[in-house]
Specification:
Blueprint: H1 27-42, E1 55-57, E2 64-66, H2 94-116
Helix pairs in contact: 1-2
Bound molecules: zinc ion (2 copies).
C-alpha cells in the first residue's frame, strides 16, 4: 500500500537525491551515522563483538576476528561455527584493517559534527 507517490520510473543512472535535511541540518548526519553504524556492524569481531583489531579470518568460513581473539584457534577450528580452520599462520587482512581505520576516523568526524553542530568536512 504505497501512498499516492508516483511510480518510480527513473533509471539507476539518475543521481541519488540528496537526503532531505531537517531544519536543524542534522538530517544528513543522522543518515551518515546510520550508514556508518551499518558498516561497523560488519566490522565487528565474531568473538569479542568489538570493532576488529588486526582482522584475521581462519580460512574455512566467513567469520572475521581480531588476531588476539583467535590466536588459540589457528589450525584448529572457528570458535563460532566450528568450521575447521585451514590456516596455520594468522595473517592480518591489511585492506580490511584500513577500512576499519577509515571508519573510526569517520566516526570521529561525525561525532564532532554532531557535538559542535557544524560541518567538519568543509
Ligand atoms: Zn575480537
Ligand atoms: Zn566460522
Amino acid at each position: 500500500m504505497p501512498g499516492n507517490r508516483p511510480p518510480k520510473v527513473r533509471s539507476g543512472n539518475e543521481p541519488h537525491p540528496a537526503p532531505s535535511m531537517d531544519p536543524g541540518g542534522r538530517g544528513a548526519w543522522a543518515h551518515s551515522r546510520a550508514a556508518l553504524a551499518g558498516l561497523e556492524k560488519l566490522l565487528r569481531c565474531s568473538r569479542c563483538t568489538d570493532i576488529l583489531r588486526e582482522p584475521v579470518c581462519l580460512g574455512g568460513c566467513e567469520h572475521i576476528f581480531c588476531s588476539n581473539c583467535v590466536s588459540d584457534c589457528v589450525g584448529t577450528c572457528c570458535p563460532v561455527c566450528y568450521t575447521p580452520a585451514w590456516i596455520q599462520d594468522v595473517k592480518i587482512n591489511r585492506q580490511l584493517d584500513s577500512v576499519i581505520q577509515l571508519c573510526s576516523k569517520l566516526r570521529n568526524l561525525l561525532h564532532d559534527a554532531d557535538s559542535s553542530g557544524r560541518c567538519t568536512f568543509c
